[in-house]
């Protein structure tokens, strides 16, 4: 199968040797997004709600670059530094999934790149 790297300047550039997303057939595998401002490459200032909002905006940009959207997401994984932030992140996340609810895991981690409080990755289907 042919692999196609997906990239957009509307989401932060990769901070390592990886792609923002990779399309394989009808599947789109998106790398985890942290709350980096794509214009500056810097972490957004603010609490978990602000960070989660930036993460979801970054994900939306990568999905859009692949020609899909949140309705095409079939699985997501949320990484939280503090499980006490679960409800706040859930509220922000839920606003993006109005028409359908993908499968999801939420995992507590000791730390995330650049000191982020949240990282989210998604898997989408029917990538055109």
Task: Describe what this molecule looks like in 3D.
With 128 residues, the protein is of the alpha+beta class. It has a single domain, classed as 60s Ribosomal Protein L30, Chain: A, CATH 3.30.1330. It is 21% helix and 27% strand. The chain has helices at residues 48-65, 86-94; strands at 3-6, 21-24, 27-30, 73-80, 103-108, 118-125. The longest helix is centred in the middle third of the chain and has 18 residues, at 48-65. The chain is globular and about 40 Å long. The protein starts with a strand and ends with a strand. The model has no long low-confidence stretch (mean pLDDT 95).
CATH architecture: 2-Layer Sandwich
Describe the strand arrangement of the main beta sheet, using strand numbers: 1-2-3-6-4-5
Number of domains: 1
Shape: globular
Number of helices: 2
Distance between the termini: 15 Å
Helix content: 10-25%
CATH topology: 60s Ribosomal Protein L30, Chain: A
* pLDDT averaged residue by residue: 95
Per-chain topology:
Elements lengths: L2 E4 L14 E4 L2 E4 L17 H18 L7 E8 L5 H9 L8 E6 L9 E8 L3
Parallel strand pairs: 4-5
Antiparallel strand pairs: 1-2, 2-3, 3-6, 4-6
Helix pairs in contact: 1-2
Features:
60s Ribosomal Protein L30, Chain: A; 27% strand; six-stranded mixed β-sheet; 2 helices; alpha+beta; 128 residues; single chain
């Amino acid at each position: 199968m042919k692999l196609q790297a997906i990239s957009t300047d509307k989401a932060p550039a990769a901070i390592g040797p990886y792609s923002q997303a990779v399309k394989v057939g009808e599947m789109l595998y998106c790398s985890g997004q942290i709350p980096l401002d794509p214009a500056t490459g810097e972490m957004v200032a603010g609490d978990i709600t602000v960070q989660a909002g930036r993460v979801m905006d970054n994900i939306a940009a990568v999905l859009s670059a692949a020609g899909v959207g949140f309705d095409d997401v079939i699985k997501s994984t949320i990484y939280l530094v503090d499980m006490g932030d679960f409800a706040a992140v859930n509220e922000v996340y839920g606003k993006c999934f109005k028409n359908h609810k993908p499968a999801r895991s939420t995992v507590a981690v000791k730390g995330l790149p650049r000191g982020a409080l949240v990282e989210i990755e998604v898997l989408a289907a029917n990538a055109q």
